[in-house]
Structures are given as C-alpha cells and as structure tokens.
UniProtKB/TrEMBL annotation, chains A, B, C, D:
Protein name as annotated: PaaI family thioesterase
The species this protein was found in: Vreelandella gomseomensis
Class of enzymatic activity (EC top level): hydrolase
Keyword Hydrolase applies: yes
Molecular functions (GO terms): hydrolase activity
Lineage: Bacteria, Pseudomonadati, Pseudomonadota, Gammaproteobacteria, Oceanospirillales
Amino acid sequence: MTEMTVEQIEHFLDEVFPQRMGRIESVGEMSATMRLTIGNEHLRPGPRVSGPTMMGFADVAMYVAILAQIGPEPMAVTSDLNCHFLRAASGDHDIIAHAKLLKLGRRLAVGEVQVVSAADETKPVILVTASYVLPVKS
Amino acid sequence: MTEMTVEQIEHFLDEVFPQRMGRIESVGEMSATMRLTIGNEHLRPGPRVSGPTMMGFADVAMYVAILAQIGPEPMAVTSDLNCHFLRAASGDHDIIAHAKLLKLGRRLAVGEVQVVSAADETKPVILVTASYVLPVKS
Amino acid sequence: MTEMTVEQIEHFLDEVFPQRMGRIESVGEMSATMRLTIGNEHLRPGPRVSGPTMMGFADVAMYVAILAQIGPEPMAVTSDLNCHFLRAASGDHDIIAHAKLLKLGRRLAVGEVQVVSAADETKPVILVTASYVLPVKS
Amino acid sequence: MTEMTVEQIEHFLDEVFPQRMGRIESVGEMSATMRLTIGNEHLRPGPRVSGPTMMGFADVAMYVAILAQIGPEPMAVTSDLNCHFLRAASGDHDIIAHAKLLKLGRRLAVGEVQVVSAADETKPVILVTASYVLPVKS
C-alpha cells in the first residue's frame, strides 16, 4: 500500500519541484518507475543522454518512491548519491528509472535506482544508490 | 605545467560539450576552478541550487582538470561519481567548484571536487569524488 | 554458463587470496553467493558484525562473481567500492552475500552486492556497488 | 579545540572498539591522523595491504576525528562509505590515515580520509568519503 497515488505525487511535485525531469509511470510498495523523454537540454554529442541528466533523473525517482511511502514531505533531501555509469544511453530514446527503497527509517531512507534506455531495457545505463534524510516529525 | 590553457579548453568544450555549465576560472597542476552563475533552470524552491546542478557542475570541473593535464580528449567519460550533500546552496549566489586530481593513470583518472557557494567560500556545499575512464592511445 | 566451478574458484583463491573471508555457496550467470560464519575477529560490541568485515566480504563476493565469468585472473583489482550500511547484523548469525554483475566489459566490471543476515534474509544489512579493473589481455 | 585528547580517545576505544586497527598520532580541529603497522592479517600477496584493511582503517580514523569533536559517543555509526583505490600499498610499510571532517551537524557528520603509505606520503593509496549518523541527545 502506498500513501500517495501517482496523480497526488505529480500534483505535489508541481508545487515543490516544478523543474523536475520526467513523469511517473507507477508507484508500488517501496518502489517507483519514471520515464523521461529526452530533449535538447539533456544531450551530449552523439547524441547521447548526459551524465547529469541521468543522475538527476535517478535522484527524483528515489524521491518519488519515498513520497509514495511517507506522504507529501517537501523537506526530504538527498544526503548522498553514488552513480556508476555503465553504458551510453542514446539520445534518441526515452530513459526509464526503476527506484527501489531498501530501507525506510524514521530519519534516513536508502535505495537504489537502475536507469535503462527504452532502446534496450535489459541493460542498465546507470546504477545509483542514494540516501535521503527525512525530517523528524514532532 | 598544463597541456591546455583556459582559453583552449573553453574552445574545445564549445565543440564537444556545448551544453555545459559554468566557466573556467583557472587551471593548474592537476587542478581546476570553475564558477557557475545560477539561472532559473538550476533552482529548487527557496531558492536554492538543485542537487543535479551541483553534481553536473562538479563533473565538468573534473573533466576540465583532466583536459588541462592530457590535452583535448573528447572520449574521456565519467565512470563513477559519488556526491555527499553537505549544506544548501542559496540560489542567489554563484557556486564555485575546486577540482583536484589525485591520480592520473593511463586508463583511469580519480579526483575530488569541493563546491562552495560565493556566499561563504569556507563551507563546502557538496563533496564529490569521481573516476574518469581515459581511452587508450594507439 | 560460467568459466569456473565453485571448487575451481576456491582452489584459485587459496593461492591468490588465502586470507579471504567466507566460502562460496554458488555461482551463476553474472552472479555469486557466499556465506561467512562470524568469528571474534569480525565482531564489534553487541555483538554485531563490524562494518569492515561486511565491506570486505562484499568485495570478495564481487571478485568471485567476476572469476566465475572470466576465469582465474589474479590481477583483477577493486577500483572503487561504495557501501550503504542499512541495519546492524547480529554477531550470532552467519552473513550471506549476493553479488550480481551489471556490466562486464573488457576493462571494467561493475556490480552490486546485497549482504543479509541469516537471522532475517529478507532485510539487507549493507548495499554495496563496486567497480573492478580487469587487466587487458595481450 | 577538541573535546577529547588522544589518550582519552584511545581509552574510550579500548572499551567500545577493542578490535580496531592502528593507533592515533594526533587529533586537531575537525581532523585526526592515525598510523597502522601492517601485520600478516592485513596482507594480500605481493605483499600489499588488502583493500578491506585500508577501508576499515579509514573508517576508524573518521570515527576518531568525530570523537575528538563531540566527546565519547559509542552510538555514532557509519552510514555510508565510498572508497576509491588509487595505488597499491606495499605490505612492508606502515599506512597513515588523514581524516578531515567537512561537516559536523547534530545528526550527521561527513568527512574524507586520505590514506598514504609510509613509503611515499605524497601519493594517497585510497581516498574515502563517509557519513556517520550521530544519535540525538535528549
């Protein structure tokens, strides 16, 4: 069971993170899937998707997975993010982020995100692990 | 001694990485400093500088430090990047990246980047360590 | 299909890494599972398993997964390792490492390792992602 | 100014972390230096110092830097640790860890540790960044 639906999360993000990348495809138990259609601002020559685009996209997918579990929390912020770049992602295809939370404590959430290209969804283009700090509720 | 001057690196990047963030302030022995003036696209509400902006900026500062040492190499790519977010960076001030290479091998370069806010340059806002893969020369 | 069996890898490691931790339970396509029975040298007060024990154990599990794919290679070395500590692991139980390779190139292998406690195998105690550098064959 | 002297920290660690590696050389403002004399249990063939030895040593150096700032706190635990392996460290020489805290908040401490070999203290053998979670005081 999740605390927020896809639609509720999108509305919430429109308020607190309007510049975000991508759209939510689904949320589930401790997980979320998002898709990003690549625009010029996301490109490096090739064209391929730029590293910062993919890291930022993975970051928001983690945030969405957390929101789905804990409800609308604007003060949850990234504490650390580790990214391994595995393969180039063609700029001609969408990228899809699969976020999975491995721990959701009172103060810290930790998860991993695999991003794939729509060109071949079996081969991750980046592997991210990240921690989010959650504010303490009074 | 460096292989490229600031001007030469800027020209090279205009060809291979035109969408990059920031401008180079200086390059030195195994090091580089860059500055980014914050625009709307870099913001989160607050306003503060977004995490992906800071990670991407640190990434290009590492690349510039590498170029300064090895000359124009378009095929050097980020292999992994680790980012700790230390403090919020106000969206009203420039951010400055100080990149330092700790290892420059034939195949792999590893360095760290500290990013500070022009509001208080004594307190890093993020700490990044990253590896770059260098193509083997024939 | 793997290049080496569990028995072959154990023999090879007896030569090149005799101080290693744990024993191999199985190897598969781009994966390996290992088990470690906790001894005094692995403990912190509690008793719980020490962080360095878990990081080192994850590291060797990655190496085993790589060996299973590429054959006996003593010169494959860890390039970077990132570890998130999720939960304490009781010193009274074995720990089990599940290593999965996400990329196996000519020069670089990248994978992730989830370590669980035999006390509750559903909850990872650490999440590791790591890169290994593979020597180029002549 | 530090909250604990080297001698006080060593005594405290004898209680809460008796299996630790190394000895403290000095502590300073947001920093600590430690030295480890290499024994058989730390070796890989070569002989060189094993990766887990170096990661564990960096981890305790971070903890010592934190203790020096906040006083005896047995419940400060590593949250994440990222390690880049730069060079082999000869098993015939001591290794020295230089830990520096970049942030010391109420709940989280973040720092970096450079480990060098006594054979050549100018060339780091590993670069570590890590976060520690600090328990909230009532």
